[in-house]
Amino acid sequence: IKQTVVQSGFRWVRELVLDNCRSVEGKIEGLTAEFVNLEFLSLINVGLISVSNLPKLGKLKKLELSDNRISGGLDVLAEKLPNLTHLNLSGNKLKDISTLEPLKKLDNLKSLDLFNCEVTNLNDYRESVFKLLPQLTYLDGYDIEDREASDSDGEVDGDGVDDDDDEEGEEEEDEDGEEEDFDEEEEDEEDEEEVEGEEDDDEVSGEDEEENLLIPPVPLIYYQYLHIFVCKDFPVLTMRTQCF
Fold it and tell me: For residues 107 and 95, what is the distance between their CA atoms, to the nearest angstrom?
């Protein structure tokens, strides 16, 4: 899979999804060990035959390889991905339990998916896999006692990317709440200013009646614009200039 990426940005990437891209002769290309902080990698339906040139990704925890043509060579995963916890090999060409034996070296592996692989048709398939991989908690979404995995068990990690998204969501909600409170305060202030503006208009009209001999009548348009601009905190002198 050929990708041109600015190398200096590789180390900031924590999730990489390349689903439905095309592999080169059934192998991965363009993915390097410079993705030092990568925790989630998805290569669904990319035509992979082999994972032999997978780079060393020490922090990778979840790997999606479903709907490819992988038939073996899984020893590379144990060598290059020592902290892998979730592995999805559904829809590949895995036929024998023995092809899974290299996964014994993945001490942190908790979840393995093999849906639509020929190996699932073998007698005592589940019992055999759990026996081969004692560190495994879930196989095809269920534990050894056929209890379904909870949503939390499907996460990459407790401190992973999903939690960051939740925190960002909470922050956005807090910000929205603050904005709503601020808008309500603004509306209250505007209402108070409108009341004050009306009182000022009444006082001004009373003074004009008392001093009508000294001050000529002010056009009605002045009062209308004066009220509007007082409410919006615009300088009164601006409108006076326009009115006169």
Answer: 23
pLDDT digits (tens, 9 = 90+) for 105-155: 999 999 999 999 999 999 999 999 999 999 999 999 999 999 999 876 655
Q: Reduced to 3 states, what is the DSSP secondary structure of residue 216?
A: coil
Nearest C-alpha neighbor of 5 from the set 26, 31, 41: 31
CATH topology of domain 7-159: 3.80.10
Task: Tell me how far apart the alpha carbons of residues 169 and 221 are, in angstroms, rounded to a whole number.
Answer: 49
Q: Per-domain residue ranges for the chain?
A: 7-159, 187-243
Gap between the Cα atoms of 133 and 220, Å rounded:
89
> Residues with Cβ < 8 Å from 54, sequence gap 6 or more?
28, 31, 76, 77, 80, 81
